[in-house]
Design a protein that fits this description.
Number of helices: 9
Shape: globular
Number of strands: 0
Helix content: over 70%
Largest sheet: none
Mean pLDDT: 95
Oligomer: single chain
Order of helices and strands: HHHHHHHHH
């Protein structure tokens, strides 16, 4: 329960930061540094807190995969590109990559009992998903440095929640899936 409350508090703070407009004042690479810092905090918490690791182990793996349904945000990236609010180099490859990851997550969840929970399926999906999100973050950083105004949509709600909340969870969830797959493999041997 404690960690759910911490996550809720983190979400509320992220919403507050988005509502305040503070992120609009931050210039690249500030948002990326914040994202890396939040992701790093999750990794450090995992490494040093046995209770946090135990809590994460208790989460149904379907819920971890289900988090990636949020990556249907890729459709919003494409829509914003169509309106001229996000650049092609970020919105189109990142949008389609996220849509592919989210669609594959939906298929994995729908076929969980037989096909979805198989290790090779999860491993391939997880590798693709992690590479995609890292590509999206790197592209956002590059585009933000080259033309900060072109990425302004990512610094206001609802998309500000990506850097301040969701992307660190997404990256962390990929790392968690790798850790679980490794643990499962070691248990099987």
């Amino acid at each position: 329960m404690k960690f759910w409350l911490i996550a809720l508090l983190w979400l509320l703070i992220a919403i507050g930061v988005g509502l305040s407009g503070l992120l609009r004042q931050v210039r690249p690479p500030g948002p990326q540094i914040m994202l890396v810092g939040l992701t790093g905090a999750l990794i450090i918490a995992y490494r040093i807190s046995q209770s946090f690791r135990n809590w994460l182990k208790g989460i149904d793996p379907r819920a971890v995969v289900g988090l990636h349904l949020t990556r249907f945000v890729g459709f919003y990236f494409l829509w914003l590109y169509g309106r001229g609010e996000l650049p092609y180099r970020f919105a189109v490859p990142g949008g389609w990559g996220d849509i592919i990851v989210a669609t594959a997550a939906a298929v994995i969840l729908a076929t969980w009992p037989g096909f979805g929970r198989r290790t090779p399926v999860l491993l391939i999906w997880n590798i693709y998903g992690l590479v995609d999100i890292l590509f999206v973050v790197a592209t956002a950083a590059a585009e933000g440095r080259a033309a900060p105004a072109s990425m302004a949509a990512l610094l206001r709600l609802p998309l500000s929640l990506l850097a301040t909340f969701l992307v660190p969870l997404i990256i962390g969830s990929h790392l968690l899936i790798f850790a679980r797959l490794r643990s499962d493999r070691q248990s099987a041997n």
